[in-house]
Amino acid sequence: MKIEQIYTGCIAHAAYYIENNGEAAIFDPLREVQPYIDKATKDNAVIKYIFETHFHADFVSGHLDLAKKTGAKIVYGPTAKPNFEAIIAEDNQEFKIGNVTIKAIHTPGHTLESTTYLVTDENGKEHGIITGDTLFIGDVGRPDLAQKIASDLTQEKLAGLLYDSLRTKIMPLSDDLIVYPNHGAGSACGKNMSKETTDTLGNQKKVNYALRADMTKEEFITELLDGLGAPPAYFPQNVMMNIQGYESLDTVLDKGKKALEPKEFETVANEAEALVLDVRHQDAYVKEHVPGSIFIGLDGNFAPWVGALIMDVKQPILLITAEGREEETITRLARVGFDNCLGYLKGGIDAWKAAGFEVDSIKSISPEQFAAEKDQTQLPVVDSRKPGEFSAEHVENAINIPLDFVNSQLSEVPKNDDFYIHCAGGYRSVIMASILKARGYHNMINVEKGIAGIRNAGVPLTKFVCPSTAK
């Protein structure tokens, strides 16, 4: 038996490929399906099944395109009601991949249809469990996503179901089983996932807070919901795409790979009310960019930030990319459901300038310059990192406006005075600066290299101290 984890770091996603005796299965595939087809072809295998652990929220699965191109059957767990042909497995129903057995174990909680797949090898030995978002390494799936689809499914009710699933379906299994989750650290589908992407079930029983043997259901619900932030706005939209269906990625790519001359680019932007998305490196964007464009760099956590900051997956988008990265950008947008890309600027920013159009820029300084002038200028400092990062260390008297909440906290941004803005390493602050510029703020000064550079430049940093513990 061959079992392979296919991990995509930018969205912290793991798909799985299992092959035995000329047959193969794919679990939770990404939108771009050709790599799975290529793997099966290399192994002289036919893809027989596409197993889905649940209706995903953080990405659009490739199940429909993969089924269409290979003839494989799509499998969901009990209670799933997709708007397309699929096998709805019964609890404990078994499937064969060559001489390998896949058992569907219904484990509701993250969602109602969530299902874990127990893999038994060709020798009859139970090898591992593909757990989806039921069980992560160091964490379990958040139980507050399905309520966006069905209002009667409260997060408390789903958390209770997840407790039961873990205790009655997962924890009784053998300790030596390998746990293969759908996500790792960085995913918004949990709150405390490990950087490791596999582990034994036995070790998880020892170290995973949610699997403590003496934990009551009430304790589980309280701990699971504690500190659970609001899910990104695109999550319920992705769920509906996974349930109802979507355009083929081939169609999305054909539409998005339209090269537009600068004048046509401007016309389409105005007529379609398209968002102009610049995905180049932040240093290039700071130097010069199309006025009104939004920066989300392709080389950072691109797809999650697109999903968090562009509220509607149907938003028309026009692209400005580094040369040769157009298709990659369109594909990565489609992974999280943003299928309405109308084309890209042919020749990039150089063609835009050559056509006589204006460019804008963001004032940006080095950490050393910030260190030299901040005490003299006494300008406000906006820190765009997450609250936990801010609490750990920050510039004294800085204002914390996390990038995730820039739209809801605009009133806290200094409107009349110049201000410094920074993040951890220089990526998020430029995203925020681009959003603020598009909303009429032109008084920010970006600090390059973020808090890491500021620290190295010798600027004293402080940390948040809870008043109840302060001496």
What does this structure look like?
There is one protein chain. The protein folds into 3 domains: 2-237, Metallo-beta-lactamase, Chain A (4-Layer Sandwich), CATH 3.60.15.10; 247-354, Oxidized Rhodanese, domain 1, CATH 3.40.250; 364-462, Oxidized Rhodanese, domain 1, CATH 3.40.250.10. Strand 10, helix 3 (155-170) and strand 11 (178-181) form a beta-alpha-beta unit. A 6-stranded mixed β-sheet has the order 1-2-3-4-5-6, covered by helices on one side. A 6-stranded mixed β-sheet has the order 7-8-9-10-11-12. A 5-stranded parallel β-sheet has the order 13-17-16-14-15. The protein has helices at residues 34-42, 63-70, 155-170, 201-207, 217-225, 235-244, 249-256, 262-271, 282-287, 302-309, 326-335, 348-354, 367-377, 387-392, 428-438, 450-456; strands spanning 2-8, 13-20, 23-27, 46-51, 73-76, 87-88, 94-97, 100-106, 115-120, 126-132, 178-181, 199-200, 259-260, 275-278, 294-295, 317-320, 341-345, 364-365, 381-383, 394-395, 399-400, 419-422, 444-447, 461-462. It is built from 16 helices and 24 strands. Residues 466-471 have low confidence and may be disordered. The chain has 471 residues and is of the alpha/beta class.
